[in-house]
Amino acid sequence: MKVLSVVGARPQFVKCAPVSREVREVHEEVLVHTGQHYDYLLSEVFFNDLGIPAPDHHLEVGSGSHGVQTGRMLAAIEEVIGKEEPDLVLVYGDTNSTLAGALAAAKVHVPVAHVEAGLRSFDRRMPEEVNRVLTDHCSDLLFCPTATAVRNLAAEGVTAGVHLTGDVMVDALRENLPLAKERSTVDLPPKGYYLATVHRASNTDDPAALRAIMGAFARLDLPVVFPAHPRTQKKLAEYGIAPAANVRVTEPLPYFDMLALLSGARAVLTDSGGVQKEAYILEVPCVTLRENTEWVETLEDGWNVLVGADTNRIVAEAEKVAGSPRRHSARFGDGHAAERIAAIIAEYQP
Ligand code: UD1
């Protein structure tokens, strides 16, 4: 089978690394990079570190409003599908690149497979939620990371082609954590710092929210390592918010450095979906700078707490979170999700 995989943003590079390897054992793969993320630290470093094959097509769509960015991708992916004539288009996660890949394929009657299907925050104001719902509803194969995701799809009437595979980020993490620890240059005492990431539009594009979050970091009892997404760096400068003395702002970090820092943190403060889940897997408490999450299992097991962009709640939860009792289980899978995905694709008859 000829599989055309579409990636474009940082979390997709992490997810596609294990899947692409398994897919190439059995199938021919054509890799398309939309160019949604184009900075070296958001893109190329992930290809290099994770050994992802060079893209066969680089669409270089770059930044833009949602309509402009998604529209450019849609047109360009349609053209690539026309040239390559794939049997299946494989998309990942919830970004504009995901939706563009799925929609371009569905419109020209090429089957779509979605890795990380069925996740819901039930917040349609998040661009990612719109991308998730629409992508799932035009997918033929839906690879769910959790049982919750399977239930979410069933509630929307989507049952055909749904497979519970486990989460491919567990595959990536299991494989790469030993390497991350070996290569790590982290010079901070274990459990002696917090790690923070902020990039959701609801936090970065609202000056009051970003100010409240940075105000909370300033009040924390330990240093805060804060690898800032380009969007966040720009907004901090635009709003004139200066990080406090205990906040160490860095460039976005490569995957290995991020894993090493995360595994040693006292707690992580984040609005990223992927980081919430990585924290759970690494047994690091997480304080989520949002009012909702698609990864409800992390809440149920007591590893995660939702605090929004409220200074007092952030400080209170960050400082108490390390002491709470917690359960842990393999709710995100066993590290073999990518193998299952490749096998299901091999058996698929459109
Ligand atoms: C995207 C995804 C989000 C994912 C995140 C991971 C959507 C709607 N959102 O958000 O789900 O969790 O990626 O990082 O697809 N920029 C750069 N350099 C880059 C890329 C972006 O400077 O390499 C800046 C641009 O100014 C751009 C802004 O960041 O306007 C936002 O980038 P965009 O691709 O729209 O979304 P992310 O915020 O990265």
TrEMBL record:
<dbReference type="InterPro" id="IPR029767">
    <property type="entry name" value="WecB-like"/>
</dbReference>
<dbReference type="GO" id="GO:0008761">
    <property type="term" value="F:UDP-N-acetylglucosamine 2-epimerase activity"/>
</dbReference>
<dbReference type="Pfam" id="PF02350">
    <property type="entry name" value="Epimerase_2"/>
</dbReference>
<keyword id="KW-0413">Isomerase</keyword>
<protein>
    <submittedName>
        <fullName>UDP-N-acetylglucosamine 2-epimerase (Non-hydrolyzing)</fullName>
        <ecNumber>5.1.3.14</ecNumber>
    </submittedName>
</protein>
<dbReference type="InterPro" id="IPR003331">
    <property type="entry name" value="UDP_GlcNAc_Epimerase_2_dom"/>
</dbReference>
<feature type="domain" description="UDP-N-acetylglucosamine 2-epimerase">
    <location>
        <begin position="27"/>
        <end position="345"/>
    </location>
</feature>
